[in-house]
Amino acid sequence: MSLFKTAAVIRYRNSVLPETGIKSPLQWFLEWAGGGKTASGIDINPENAISLTTVFNAITLISEGMAMMPFAPHIEENINGRVNKRIYKEHFSYPLVARRSHPYISSYNFRKVMFAWACRYDDAYAFISRKGSGNAISMYPIHPNRVVPMITPDRRLIYEIDGKEKIDYINMFHIVGYTNNGITGSSRVHLAKEALGKAMAAQQFGAKFFGKGMNVSGFVKTPKLLKDKDAVDRLKQSFIKAHGGQNNQFGIGVLEDGADWISNEVDPEKAQLNETIKVDGLMVAQLFNIPLTMLKFLERGTAYANVEQLAIQFVKYTMVPWGVNWEQECWEKLLTEREKEQDKIRYKFNFNGLLRGDTQTRAQFYNILSKCGAYSPNRILELEDENGYEGGDVHPLSPGTTTIEQLENETQNTTS
């Protein structure tokens, strides 16, 4: 029995992964992967779901938001008996995760691609290229449709690419979104395909509704029946030529022989298209855990403070979980075993800039932390992207009077 078939049987028996192959996928596998017709008659899968503007907006918000966040390895150091944390620029992985993850792709674009895949497929893969020493030097994104995770007979997790090449677990950077087993993602697009199918059907209906096929601007009503089809066509064409199109707008029309013009204006509100768009927007917001106001539906944003708080919630409850996912995968796949045992290096996104709120809120926050000695003036300037100054690393307990350092010196002098 081949490695692929053996692994398929093992994962089937243990309900870890579905049993099928890439070259001959079964229909149920296609539906499991995110395809299949919905009750609305629309085929929904991760490939075409992004044509919905709200889905596109949601994925763009998450992928671009995560891509622009500062990200780097941090190290904990013991300096004079205190734990000091700093960005570890000397680490071999710093250029890889903070500057350029791929020979031709910046760190920003690498993360943007990976998080966009993670949102659409709930899986994102990148092959890790290493030096002879084992240190990672670059990562190459691989489309989720090309990769199948599988368990070998000796219980190892490997990744099969295009049904041929097999990559060991430690050499595949893998971001898993929603999952039922912790190993593979379960596409949220597939899980919500009925709701997305309805939204897609409404979008297509709206396009046709306002197109030539379903929205007649008006009718020419004649007092008697025109039996001659050629006469009907001549009347229609002559009227369109004289009054149709952008160049003939606002002109004065003349109808002869008792003919009348009957306008056929259609109100989108009566057609319930606007309401359908709002409902579908709420569904997509729930699917990707994004505040509705961030998808450009501002009816729920009653005030600036309300919108700002929703934006902060987006960072805390949507971006931070994705960030933890990415941080832990970097820790697992990029650090050496010795570094993992020492447990002094962490990969971290810096979300502080998005969580600080407005100027007044930040000022109150810094004031409280500076009075209790938690933040030095230079630390506050650093968080505000400003340069520090000499002597600004002291920690005052009350403005301009006492510092922690002075109290320590007084205690040492007393005891000596």
Low-confidence stretches: 1-35
Global mean pLDDT: 77
The total number of structural domains is 3
The ordered H/E elements are HHHEEHEEHEEEEEEHHEHEHHHEHHHEEH
Helix content: 40-55%
Most strands sheet: 3 strands, antiparallel
**Strands side by side in the biggest sheet:** 2-1-13
Q: How far is it from the N-terminal to the C-terminal residue, by CA?
A: 78 Å
The gross shape turns out to be flat
- Structural Rg: 31 Å
Structural class determined from secondary elements: alpha+beta
Number of strand elements: 15
* Strand composition percent: 15-25%
Number of helices: 15
Commentary on this structure:
The protein folds into 3 domains: 1-215 and 269-355, no CATH class; 216-265; 356-416, no CATH class. By secondary structure, the protein is of the alpha+beta class. It contains 15 helices and 15 strands. It starts with a helix and ends with a helix.
Quick description:
The chain has helices at residues 3-13, 27-32, 53-68, 94-98, 107-121, 188-191, 193-209, 229-243, 273-288, 304-334, 337-342, 352-355, 359-371, 377-383, 404-415, and strands at residues 71-79, 82-87, 100-102, 105-106, 123-130, 136-142, 147-151, 157-161, 165-168, 172-176, 218-221, 260-263, 345-349, 396-398, 402-403.
